[in-house]
Amino acid sequence: MEAGSLHAGNPWPMAAVNDLLALNWGAIDFLSRVKMDNGLACETVHPIKGCASTGLAFASSAGFLAHAICWRMKGKNEFFS
């Protein structure tokens, strides 16, 4: 489960993005389990259900997540196949 913040106490997908950039593979597990906002990045997810709680269709989070995945997986063809 990823960290929340004082602003939003539920698990925070952007914390998983930080983990990806820090080479922490636990982020992949978290991101593969949460539904977010119909597959789009959101601000927070429900801690039990894994669905979006706040910040639906959070565009800046989606861009940051896409950047982190591409950066982390650069040269790892098995991820993209």
What does this structure look like?
- The protein is mainly alpha-helical and 81 residues long.
- It has a domain at 16-55 and 68-80.
- 30% of the residues are buried.
- A hairpin with a 6-residue loop joins β1 and β2 (52-54).
- The protein has a two-stranded antiparallel ribbon with strand order 1-2.
- Helices cover 44% and strands 6% of the residues.
- The mean pLDDT is 81.
Which secondary-structure class do the elements indicate? mainly alpha
The overall strand count is: 2
Low-confidence segments, given as residue ranges, are none
End-to-end distance, in Å?
A: 27 Å
What is the 3D form? globular
Overall residue-averaged pLDDT value? 81
Order of helices and strands: HHEEHH
Number of helices in the DSSP assignment: 4
Strand order, largest beta sheet: 1-2
Let me know the largest β-sheet. 2 strands, antiparallel
Proportion of β residues?
5-15%
Radius of gyration: 12 Å
- Helix amount: 40-55%
Chain-wise SSE layout:
Layout: H1 13-21, H2 26-33, E1 44-45, E2 52-54, H3 59-73, H4 77-80
Describe what is shown at a glance.
The chain is mainly alpha-helical and 81 residues long. It has a domain of 53 residues. The chain starts with 12 loop residues before the first helix and ends with a helix.
Descriptive keywords:
mainly alpha; two-stranded antiparallel ribbon
